[in-house]
Amino acid sequence: MKHLLTLKDLSQDEILAIIDLAINLKQDYTPYQDALKGQSVVTLFEKPSLRTRVSFDIGINKLGGHAVYLDQQNGALGQRESVKDFALNLSRWCDAIVARVFDHNTLVELKTHASVPVVNSLCDLYHPCQALADFVTLKEHCGDLSQVTLGYVGDGNNVTHSLMFAAAKLGAKMVVVCPPGHFPDGNMVLEAKQIAAEHGGELVLSSDVAALEGCDALYADTWISMGDDTPLSAIQAKFQAYQINAQLLASSGAKYVLHCQPAHREVEITSEVMDGPGSLILDQAENRMHAQNAVLLKLLA
């Protein structure tokens, strides 16, 4: 494991090792408090962030390392100076680059020219750190991940892609329910289905919320991705039947609810469910830090 751009590049054993290490870290950081002593990690942000920025900054500190935050006050990455030169320069000073970017190709270029590990903290195609935190959370509450059935409801997006590949690698079952025309990328679906078959998992796609019956957990994300200026009024009627609410939770039989946040209460998820006894949403948010720290330890320690 030299970089983390997408979970489909990792083996089942590597993903399980990250999940187990994250759970160990959560229980006790003492053995790892100097693991990154003397090392610096650049956290590069093209997009706004709460959970990603804070969880990496504080998490790196917990491992004894130093986080350097770079925003894009001088313009988007690649405009003021090339992505190649960004990577070459940063590699002379830091020990890893964590990047939250608009375009996956930016990460590929960073990886190509950097001599240090590159971690994808979000792009248009994937959100691997989020998916790792989600499966850490599911393992804490459900146990054997190969026996978990996860239902994703709403717009197929970067989070959906990473969840599909994580579930496929882990041999879990994932049900993706989207309105027609809003499914995840077709090529990624085919690839994830093949990986799932190889690991004893299953990927099911449907536009019918009845397909969620038997899921252990339901997962929501915003219906409009960050940076998309589509007005809610233009898609709300199409998506309303896919809101996670008490009725959908009851009809599916799911015990738990997840959301990667930021959440739009009473839109893709109701406050009743978000704040209810089955909500694991804040567990997910906390576990971002532990999962990310596990990734950094695998890459740097």
UniProtKB/TrEMBL annotation:
One of the record's GO molecular function terms: ornithine carbamoyltransferase activity
Name of protein: Ornithine carbamoyltransferase
PANTHER family: ORNITHINE CARBAMOYLTRANSFERASE, MITOCHONDRIAL, ORNITHINE TRANSCARBAMYLASE, MITOCHONDRIAL
UniProt EC number: 2.1.3.3
Catalytic activity: carbamoyl phosphate + L-ornithine = L-citrulline + phosphate + H(+)
Organism: Ferrimonas marina
Protein family per UniProt: Belongs to the aspartate/ornithine carbamoyltransferase superfamily. OTCase family.
Every Aspartate/ornithine carbamoyltransferase Asp/Orn-binding domain range: 147-297
Keyword Transferase on entry: yes
